[in-house]
Amino acid sequence: MSNDSNVKIRLNNSELWGGLIGLALGGFVIWSGLKLKLGTINDPGSGYVLFYTGILMCLFAGSIIIAALSEGGPTFGSRWQNTRWTKPVIVIACLIAFAFSLDTFGFLLSSIPLMVLLLRLVDPVRWPLAIPIAVLVPLGMWWILKRLLLIQLPSGIFEIG
Amino acid sequence: METLINVAHGFGVALLPINLLYCFIGVFIGTLVGVLPGIGPISAMSLLLPITLSGTPESGIIMMAGIYYGSMYGGSTTSILVNIPGEAASVVTCIDGHQMAKQGRAGPALGIAAFGSFIAGTFALIALMLVAPKLASVAIAFGPAEYFSLMVLGLVVLTFLTQGSMAKALLMACTGVVLGLIGLDSITAQPRLTFGRVELIDGIGLVPVVMGLFGIAEVLLNTEQVIKRDIMNTRITHLLPSRADWKASAGPISRGTIMGFLLGILPGGGAVVASFGSYALEKRLSKTPERFGTGAIEGVAGPEAANNAAAGGAFIPLMTLGIPPNVVMALLLGAFVIHGLQPGPLMITQNPGLFWGIVASMYIGNLMLLVLNLPMIGMWVQLLKLPYNILFPLIILFTIIGVYCSSNNVFDVYVMIAFGVIGYFMRKLGYEPAPLVLAFVLGPMLENNLRKSLILSQGDLMTFVERPISAACLLFAVALLIGPLLPALRKKRELVALDEGA
Lengths: 161, 502
Hints:
The complex is a heterodimer.
Chain A: H1 2-11, H2 14-35, H3 48-71, H4 76-79, H5 86-121, H6 127-148
Helix pairs in contact in A: 2-3, 5-6
Chain B: H1 2-14, H2 17-35, H3 41-48, H4 57-82, H5 91-102, H6 106-139, H7 144-161, H8 166-180, E1 183-184, E2 191-192, H9 206-224, H10 243-265, H11 271-285, H12 298-313, H13 315-321, H14 327-338, H15 347-350, H16 352-373, H17 377-383, H18 388-407, H19 410-428, H20 433-456, H21 463-466, H22 468-482, H23 487-496
Antiparallel strand pairs in B: 1-2
């Protein structure tokens, strides 16, 4: 029973998972280096530095994993303890939605809803203040960039902006 | 005499109306980001990097430099009045500065911070003027082996000084090198890690990476917390320190200036280490160390002088060797590269107008900062009242626009958002982004110099240890790598470890 709980604690160890991700990345870099050809020490090829950097990454990731297994480490839950973890999730979701809509709907039609969501969902700003900020700031920026700096922002399929 | 002629030439460049305007914009924005918690100089500089494209190289670099040293000035205001450091180098100023403000001595605290910063900034500029040309003439003799070893040393020093596990910092540095190598190989023109995407042929841009890791990630971290500000509502008077204040502060300002300048030059060092170092030194030298933490003016004067002197000193490795000693200088290097310029030993002789113009503009910028930070203190205090729930959507919008404008490419916006999310999780798991960014900038140069030195030496690795400068750099780097294994050195490292990202 106690062994089971130890395994559980270890699997929830954020340090361990950080190290494993590093190890996987290092492995991928080594593989990429090999694929690109190492060359010789007299004439190093395109993959030479990548290969050795990958080895270093695996070594450092290995030491993180060893430390995580021997000394333990904080759990994922404890990293987000006493924080409003839903707030960054909301911001990330808004940003991803914005990224998907930017090319299709253009800058103005994507950034105004993004601003409304950010102003209202995280630490709600009153509607009478949120709406003018959400509309006027992107519009103002768009006007400055397009008219004064002659920078064309994405206009999307509706060609607005 | 030659230096005086060069300085005069520099003032000729810096006093052009357009350069004066850019200098003012730079120091104004610098003070602004220093004052506002949540946006550091790195985020602001990355945000404004694309704007430098619209003017001459001189104007762009003058503005970027202004943001950096301006933020060092502005950071003290929030530390003293609100007890929240506007940027990482002002963390120490909170300790005694806010205590002084609580005792009704906010004026002298702000005054000595501004005057100390001005004195240190001026000293750093004079030293920069005298040291940089001499170092540049020595640096001409540097070969690829020396450059490679110096960059390795810079990365190791930064990882040594980064908060938390050194293995994590080194892993981040290696990741940065790999990210920097994405794109065409500069020697064989072979595409690397491009995954068939045309957008990656030229590599990942510095602007989306930095804005994501520092700008967006910082916002995500800040939204987790409820940011409360305990702003002093009392009127700030007596900004000019008394004779007794000056007497107590003269020593700390002098020592902080010299220490800060020297630490600023070192690769990997910088304003944050300098301010912590100065505070520790003053506490150790004081006959009444128990006063520190309760409102000792020495605890404000020393660190503020040190962080400004370090900001000036950090220009030396960039201008003379072309090697950025910290992330802020890496961004400045990005600004040089955007304009097709390569800082290094030849820049001072080939482009004297640019070098001396930047140096002279910093004199003028320091004077502007004194005016901005003392008589206009009330305006900055008002700005502190801007709620974060309105500020952060604006920061996000400006970063998106900034990234898009740097390349006119929506792909860079995706890259920035991706790095923002990665940066957030990295910070949550204790992986600092500073080594990654510095390695990202140095990666291609590091690879180039390594491959060149191996080709030149016909594969003889001894080339790195037979050349004295290279050997010394590598020896120091190895000592720092082994150091944390020794308990005594590990403790010291924990004491000076810094959070560059703040």
